[in-house]
Amino acid sequence: EEKDQYRSHVSLESLEAGGSAVYATNGVRLVLTRIRLNKTSGSIPDADRRETGKNSVVLADGGSKVTMEFCEVNSHAQSADGVTASGEGTKVTLQEGMVSTSRNGSAALNATNNSKIIVQKTIVNTYSNQSPAFYTCKDGTIEVTEAKGENAGQAAPSFYVSGGTIKAEKCELSSAKWT
Predict the structure, then answer these.
(1) Residue 178 has what DSSP assignment?
(2) What would the DSSP string read from start to end of 116-177?
(3) Distance, CA of 101 to CA of 107 (rounded, Å)
(4) Which tens digit of pLDDT belongs to each residue from 104-127?
(5) b/e code 117-126 from CB counts within 10 Å (16+ = b)
(6) Is there a contact between 92 and 66 (Cβ–Cβ < 8 Å)?
């Protein structure tokens, strides 16, 4: 019988290049409640980062299921996405939380390689160039309901689809410097 792994009321941080504060793999089921997750250093080249999720604050792959409730995710590292789901059967659900990135090339949420991210009542902010709020590639799917936030960098759209699907309902998002 599969059991969920629970964690609550802690702060976790990643300083390692290519590393994550939380890495769920091999079909693990993880529930995070009231967790603060940070990445403050450690950038890697962009070559395959967006497709693999390497260097994200939270990375789920290999069919894992991650549920995040009332969590705060902050990326302050170059080319470090906030939350990435990668791989067939992988699913991340965020409920009533916040995701923020502040360095160039750092998407807030990234679904890739047939994975899925569900976002409900979450604040999503990006404060740097080429850092979309929601990004999909290689048949990734993002479903977002009642998200709020802003994208303050140049070439930083709220939604960037490079393959895959983004479905959004009842969202209040702005992109201040789209050029």
Answers:
(1) -
(2) EEEEES-EEEE-STT--SEEEEEEEEEEEES-EEEEEEET--SEEEEEEEEEEES-EEEEEE
(3) 7
(4) 888 999 999 999 999 999 999 998
(5) bbbeebbbbb
(6) yes
Coil, strand, or helix at residue 49? helix
Residue with tokens 């890697």: 44
> Distance between CA atoms of 107 and 9, rounded to whole angstroms?
25
Q: Per this entry, what is the length of the chain?
A: 179
| Percentages (nearest 5) of helix, strand, coil residues in the chain | 0, 55, 45
Strand partners for 96: none
The CA distance from 15 to 37, in Å, is: 11
Query: Token match 């802003």: residue?
Result: 150
Residues 6+ apart with CB under 8 A from 160: 107, 132, 134, 135, 136
pLDDT digits (tens, 9 = 90+) for 142-154: 999 999 998 888 8
Give the pLDDT means over successive 10-residue stretches in the chain (179 positions): 63 77 94 91 65 85 96 91 96 97 91 97 91 92 95 85 94 75
Largest CA distance in the chain: 51
Residue 4: per-residue pLDDT: 64
The span from the CA of 162 to the CA of 21, in Å, is 26
Structure tokens at 141: 């799917």
